[in-house]
Request: fold
Amino acid sequence: MSKKINFPIKESVDRITGSLSFPIHQTSAFLMPEGEHFRYSRESNPTVEELARVMALIENTEAATCFSSGMGAISTTLLTLCKPGSTILIHKDTFARTFRFVTEYLTKWGVKVIVPELGTDAFLEQAGKADLVFLESLTNPILRVYDVEAVAKAVHENHGTLIVDETFATPINQRSSDLGADVVIHSLSKFISGHNDVIGGSAAGKKEIIDRIDSFRRTLGTTMDPNTAYLTLRGIKTLKTRIDRINGTAGLLADKLQNLEGFSNIRYPGLNDHPDREVSLRNLKGFGGVITFDIKISGDPLKAMKKLEVIAPANTLGGVNSTISHPLTMSHRSLNKTEQEALGLKNETFRLSVGLEEPEVLIEDLEKMIY
Reply:
């Protein structure tokens, strides 16, 4: 059963001192035998464990563990749960590094990979053939919305495991654990921390699975440092407020861009012509803060982005300040030309991450890029 997300004050204080901010335990090791649980910070650290506890709380799961990056969370989780002879199902419209890790690295170790066409229906046709299924609930960068509940049902009928990257949706807009996901991944660098000042990742799910992933994390060394955990905990305190504001602004922008000269092919789950409109309305509480679109520009897209005065050209998203990226040369540059074309990525395609600025200010800034 889905629970409302809340952040009770007494849950977030330091239970030893009463400090309203959980302290940074900046140490490599702990006194023994008093520190038997916290032996060494690569294995466990109180600040990082507090963040894991909070992530499990807001994801409504039994347990969670944290990593040095979102890719650390993805690679550690996949390496824990697959083995030579396993079959992984992944869609082509994922973050390029995730796609490369699965299709190029894991295949070297005897893992079979299935990559269907875009969309839930094509994914469901193959779901029964895989031991491990990986999907982004809201995809990067073309913003397809996969029906997590339907996919989970198909995967579990085949006794498979479903991993969902929920970075774009956030637990405010969708909790994939409530829809049947076995493991929920986040790049904490994005909307969860929300200030473009940390690199981190998390995995949340049933305790038995997370314990295995956490054990392998200790071996691989994909460990989060306590200062990052502290900053992420700080960001989470404003998560609901930020996402509510960002949802509203992004919706207004997407509507406006549809009728603005020079902009075309607007991709946003809140629009009536989105290919996954029905799933979006059924599963999403909000449509997120990312909009992908094409802009009529002349020449170098990087020069077009330099015209911006408010929106920052940057290879990231999810912060309080709006950022824009060019997938072909930034987030998805590692894909080959055929793979990029299959996603509809062109030289004039840009990905906007909406921050807390006023919508009118962002529109005025974006218009500077045209021609």
Residues 107 and 225 are 31 Å apart (CA to CA). Residues 239-369 form a domain with the Aspartate Aminotransferase, domain 1 fold (CATH 3.90.1150.10). The mean pLDDT is 93.
